[in-house]
Each structure stands twice: as structure tokens, then as C-alpha cells.
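Side project, low priority. Logging it here so it doesn't get lost.
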Amino acid sequence: SGNYYIIDGKQSGFETITDRLGKTVSAGGNAQHSTSQFKFGTASFLLDGTGDYISSPTSTDFEFGTGDFCIEMFVRRSRIATQEMFVDMRNVAGEVVPTMYVDTTGYLNYYTNGAVRITGATSMIANVWYHVAVSRVSGNTRLFLNGTQQGSTYVDSNTYLVRPVKFGAINFDNTFGFQGYLDEIRVTKDIGRYPSAFTPTTTAFEGDNNTVLLLHADGPN
């Protein structure tokens, strides 16, 4: 347990790291660690909504194919009435990869293969921590806000491609930037974790055999 960040350089106020499983994780713009807000631990990632992001390059661990997966994190928005990206994996528009964002009405959305597949109906407000997750279990993809399913279940027969993963902006052009704080990011492959409503964790995640990316956002030890 604990943080396994290995410092190997700096980029725009953010210390490039490897996650606890050895993947390179870096930042764009002036994304940085902040100790002013966090869900667990001692810090979170702070993004200003203009050119900021957290990313990890292409890996077969991010190639979900037809299998189960889950992408989840805690988010704290600093503004409303703005479309903001939480996670995107597209190299070009319309690719078959997971994309999760909040729209201008504050609703959580899941987009893949050229269309919005799930839209929530609970508005996210500013300056509140939320747990957000998208989970595919046995060909059914569900979207969750604080453990409550948003919208309808998407019958999901897509074969998801191998791509990089980016948090806080569209992957291919860095637009729809997220302004606020991200904490406790986890990507899971081969299990979906959440087949139905659940209570979000009250402690930091710990890795397991299906965790392919885990970011506590606490910075160097």
C-alpha cells in the first residue's frame, strides 16, 4: 500500500512520475500537485482548464477489446456551465474507446464510437467532490455518479482499441479542459468492478491484479 511514485524530471510545475505499476505519467500545461484540496492522502492534481492534463502513453493494458473494464476517479469542479473532459482515449474523433465527460448542464456523459451512449440526470455542482466511474460488465456498460447509476445501461458490443489515456482534456486536441481537482484515479482491465449501484470507497484504492493504472496524486514521498 502507499504511494510508489518515482521522480525522474519536471515539466511545467509537475513532477513526471511512474505509477505504482511502472507506467509513465506526465502532465501538460501547468498541471500540478496541490495540497489545498484532496479526497485522500495529502494532495490532488490541479488543472486550470486551459491546456492542462494528466496522461499516460499507449499500452496494451489500455486495450480493453471486448472485455470488461472500469475507469474511475474523484473529481472536484471549480466551475459550472462548461463542458469538461474527465477521461478521453481518442487519437482522432469517433474512435472506439472510452470517453467520460460532464456537459454544460452538469450531467455526466459516456461517449464512444462516434456518439453519446449514456447521459445522466443528476447535475454536478462546483466545489464538491464526486466519484465518477464507467464500468463494463459482461457486455453492459454503466455510468455512475457517487455510486448511483446514471442514465440507462448501454448494451456494449464494441471492441475497444489500444490507445493512450488522458485525464482532463480531449486526447487529440486538448480542448474541453477540466478546471478543478482530480484525485485517486484508477483504471481496471478484465473486470468491471461495478455491475450495479455501490457505495464509493472511503479510503484510498489499493492495486490488485486487474489494476493497470493507479494514481493517488499525492506527489513524491
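Brief comment: The CA atoms of residues 57 and 210 lie 18 Å apart.
Revisit when time allows.
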